[in-house]
Amino acid sequence: MSNLLKMRNFIEQVSDAIASVLELDVVITDKDLFRVAATGMYRNRLSQRVNQGCATANVIIGKKCIVTASVPGDICQHCTRGGKCQEKAHIIQPIVVDDECEGVIGLLAFDERQKNIIIKQQEKLLLYTEKMAALISSTLKEQEILKKNLLITNKLKMTLNTVDEGLIYVDNKRIVTQINEAALEMLGIAEAAILDREMDECRIKRYVCEVLNEGVALDDREIVDVYQGKKIHVFITIKPILGIDDQQEGAVLILKEYAKIEKIVSNVTGIRKAYFFKDIIGVSEAINEVKNKAIKVAKIDSTVLLTGESGTGKEMFAGAIHQESHRSTGPFISINCAAIPETLLESELFGYEEGAFSGAKKGGKPGKFQLAHGGTLFLDEIGDMPLYLQTKLLRAIQEKTIDKVGGTRPVEVNVRIIAATNKNLEDSIAKGEFRKDLFYRLNVIPLNIPPLRERPEDIYPLVNIFKNKHENLLKKNVIGFSNEVMNIFYRYSWPGNVRELENVVEYMLSLASSEIIGSDSLPHKLKNFSSGYGGKGPALLPLAEVITKAEESALKEAVACAGNHLNDKEILDLCRQLKISRATFYRKAKKYHLLSL
Ligand SMILES: Nc1ncnc2c1ncn2[C@@H]1O[C@H](COP(=O)(O)OP(=O)(O)OP(=O)(O)O)[C@@H](O)[C@H]1O
């Protein structure tokens, strides 16, 4: 479709305007020889093609205006209509855009009166049609520029929405002019609630003001805050945007999510945060039993298999065992066998030699086994390892050597293996998904971490620890959770275990507006759970039982913090802090088996 045809409405308006001013008929024809707009005789011949070789076609080729005072003139000699043309005279003006003829404006005379107008007012008409052709030409150009701009904007929008970083553009008044999907997700906000409005998140606003006032970029500032009820933890870079004349036009904000950066660093290096046994919180007999056993086995170099539901703390235990072992000065390298695509897992674990496959790095790459040399290798989600790699892993454990992908000689490695799974490996063996011999190799020392619902005494100290941790991060001042909330915590089944509990505490703290956090801040699924409170749901615990549980947890935690094996002076000190008598302490110690911990 020609450019003139695309703007048919506008072209029709121009042709009507010319005709009404000049008392002549007008036809506007595009470069494909189609009549786009016309008045008079040609109005009912719109969208028809004019003859090849006619005056119009000649002007389109020659890009020069012609005046024929009496049709047929010289220019008509090749026209296929010959003497049948009804035109008596015409002026045909080309519409030229960037040296390309897009079409013509034709002023036509069909009778003697109109013919006289053309003859007598030729100069004036030429000037007028020239101006009209220029008007159409500039409008066509504007349309072209508009189309290009629209395309650039669309490409930009698509690019903005494919990047992982959050991007926000603000003008000099801090009004958000553009925001991508990643930024909306990080801020937990809908586009309509932020676009064309002032950037009002207080910490971000402060930094934006700084950049706009001083005109100097700001790099990777860490922000931990609550924005519209959602916790945000990001690194922010803000750069001023300069216009064509070097005037500041606003700023661009680049947000990188902390959790994503942490995950990338830990995935690439395999290095995890160091955990110690003191970080593993819990006062229940069950958790202390596992802890005590783990402390003992840390000293020997045997392979450990940690089992337990997701979020029970298997990775914490693996890290703590490493720190307590004679390998603590060596590396602790972790790999999640379920998170890495099967095709990459082998080279991630065992490394590869140069040229092992297309895309292999020059000089090859060491695998996690080699990186863990002299330390501990934590194989998380071992139950998801494909069978062919299980065979290779078994050989590495038995022979203490690994075969790199594309390698010709085995490489010696000195590594302690700790594996973990939330699957029942015996079931996997029965289904033929896990090698029995590997299972026995890994299961030298089995440690099972019980789910949180089986050790409710741990809930209170865990809630306390997480409250303190996130209270500081979120800069909130909270005393604690209401009895109703604690009661729900005790009765809920925690399918996501300690991880879920921590997430719930963090969520509730970010919403907290009072010192005691009530059930109104509970996340949806716990709120639903609480709607059964006293109704259809599980029965309420008697108040006395809640108090007893809280007292037991608080005392066990206090004794554990003081060091478990307390002498007389330490017990006296503890009683003073707890503001209870020695007799009361010993009575409760007996009741809750405090001193046998
Ligand atoms: N006893 C505990 N004391 C303090 N924090 C804990 C405890 N147990 C688990 N956590 C916390 O819960 C989260 C999950 O722990 P971890 O990753 O060790 O669990 P996991 O069993 O390895 O989970 P997955 O099977 O999903 O990998 C972590 O944030 C950890 O800090």
TrEMBL record:
GO biological process assignments: regulation of DNA-templated transcription
Q: Which residues form the Sigma-54 factor interaction domain?
A: 280-510
Please name the GO terms that the record assigns under molecular function: ATP binding; DNA binding
The family database entries (InterPro entries) matched by this protein are listed as: AAA+_ATPase, AAA_lid_NorR, GAF-like_dom_sf, P-loop_NTPase, PAS, PAS-like_dom_sf, Sigma_54_int, Sigma_54_int_dom_ATP-bd_1
State if Transcription regulation is listed as a keyword.
yes
Keywords in alphabetical order: ATP-binding, DNA-binding, Nucleotide-binding, Transcription, Transcription regulation
* PAS domain span: 152-197
Name used for this protein in its record: PAS domain-containing protein
